[in-house]
Amino acid sequence: MDRKRQSEDAFERGLFASRWLMAPMYAGLTVALLMLVVIFFRELVYYVPQMMTLSAEQTILVVLTLIDLTLAANLLLIVMFSGYESFVSKFDFDAGDDRPGWMGKVDFGGLKMKLIASIVAISGIHLLKRFMEIGDPGTPAPDERHLFWLTVIHMTFVASGVLLAVMDWLQAKSAK
C-alpha cells in the first residue's frame, strides 16, 4: 500500500473513531434525565399534601405539569437511545422483553419526527396551562401579548412539524 493510501486510511479510522466523542454527551443526558426525575418528585411531594384543598382547575394544572415533565423525559430517552445507536454504537446487550419496541428501529428521520412531535406536545401543554390560568384567582392574569407570542411559537412548532413530515414524505417518494 502506498504512503498516500496509508495516510488516508489512518485519517478515516481516526474520523470514524471520533464518534466516541459523543458518548460523554449521552452520559450527560442521563444526568439531565435524573434532574427531570428529581423535579417530577419534588412537584409530586409538594402537591400531594395539598390534594384535598386543590380546586379542579389547580389539580389539572398540576397534572399537566407532571405530564409535561414526563413528556420531556420521554423525549430525552428517545434522543439518548436513538442518537447513541445512530451515531456512536449499537447496544450490544440483550435486554429481552424489556427492550422498547422502537429501539434500533428509529432512524434519523424518525428521530426528527418524534422530536418535533414531543416538542409540539410540550409546547401545547404549556400553552394550555397558561390559558387555564386565565380567571384563576390565585394566579395573576397573563399578559395578552405573552399569550399571543406563546401561541405564535406553538404554531411555529406545529408548522415546522408539518413541513418536516412533508419533506420526509417527499424524500421517501423520490427514493421509490
UniProtKB/TrEMBL annotation:
Q: Which UniProt keywords apply?
A: Cell membrane, Membrane, Transmembrane, Transmembrane helix
Where does the UniProt entry say this protein principally localizes?
membrane
Which InterPro entries does the record associate with it? UPF0114 (IPR005134), UPF0114_bac (IPR020761)
- Where does the protein end up? Cell membrane
**Record keywords: Oxidoreductase included?**
no
How does this chain sit within the bilayer?
Multi-pass membrane protein
The UniProt record lists the keyword Magnesium: no
Span-the-membrane segments of this chain are 20-41, 61-81, 148-170
**Which Pfam families does the protein's record reference?**
UPF0114
Query: Could you name the domain of life of the organism this protein comes from?
Result: Bacteria
Q: Which family does it belong to?
A: Belongs to the UPF0114 family.
The name under which this protein is listed is: UPF0114 protein GU920_04455
Recall the taxonomic lineage recorded for the source organism: Bacteria, Pseudomonadati, Pseudomonadota, Alphaproteobacteria, Rhodobacterales
